[in-house]
Design brief:
The structure holds 2 protein chains of 2 kinds. Chain A is an all-alpha fold. Chain A contains 10 helices and no strands. The radius of gyration of chain B is 32 Å and the shape is rod-shaped. The chains are: A mainly alpha, B mainly alpha.
Chain lengths: 186, 116
Amino acid sequence: MLPEEELVAKILKGNASAFEILVKQYEKLVLHVTCKLIKSDEEVMDVCQEVFIKVYKGLGTFNFQSKLSTWIARIAYLTSLNHLQKYKSENINKIAGDNLELDNYHFSEDTPEKLLIKKDVSAYVQHLIKQLPLPYRTVLTLYHLEEFSYLEIQEITGMPEGTVKSYLSRARKLLKEKLVTYLRNG
Amino acid sequence: MRKPTKEMTDKEIEALLVDALKKEPEMSLPYGFAAIVTRKVFVQANVFGSYIKALLLAVSISVLAGSALFLYRPVLINPLISVLVDMKYVLIFILIVVCLIQYIDQKVVHKSLRPN
């Protein structure tokens, strides 16, 4: 694998193969961030493409003060938010993420998928995550799936580190409670 | 992932949750996504490059033609300039119309044909 600096330098010189390597390297990261925020598969594809076009256009301004993955994840996060705001597919208050209370959060239980989901804990957890407000979904994905640090998540989302920690802990607590109930009753 | 049971301890449930949170989503990008995006990005970049090349070519041809005229038929230069000056509004109008057609073509026609 090429070092980041070398890869970026090649892309800036117009090397298409180097850009393709970069896309292959980060397509999963971009997909994970966007698909946790946007629910329609087709829209996710479009947004992923848009993210990489923005990455290409902005690569000249990237100064290596952060990791390339953090920078790309931030572009993916902001592009997804813009997309949601543009098409109003998510409540704007949920996107802003302030004053979100999870204490009285209600998950829908009666869905046609319920019986299938009961068979698989992981699918059940994914089903619960999908219903969480957007900032909670984002921090859970970035922290657990992509293994970013609190500081990196702060850099990506713009949320203060304390908020990131608080969202993570509250979301995990709630998911655990639901999982305990599910396992005890299952 | 371990098989969940009703007798699991708190730590085991916590581990089960972390395992589930680390699980990758089932959705994936189509095969060859990187190649598709790369082609799209570089085609866009090349379109701009082609416009620049076309412009440079037009300027070079004009300079060459002007130089040749100046060297071989200097007497034609003054009548040519006066014709150009007389027809300046017609020429400006033609230039504006061509630019406008190109602009509408890029913004409306190509945009609607372009795959996302």
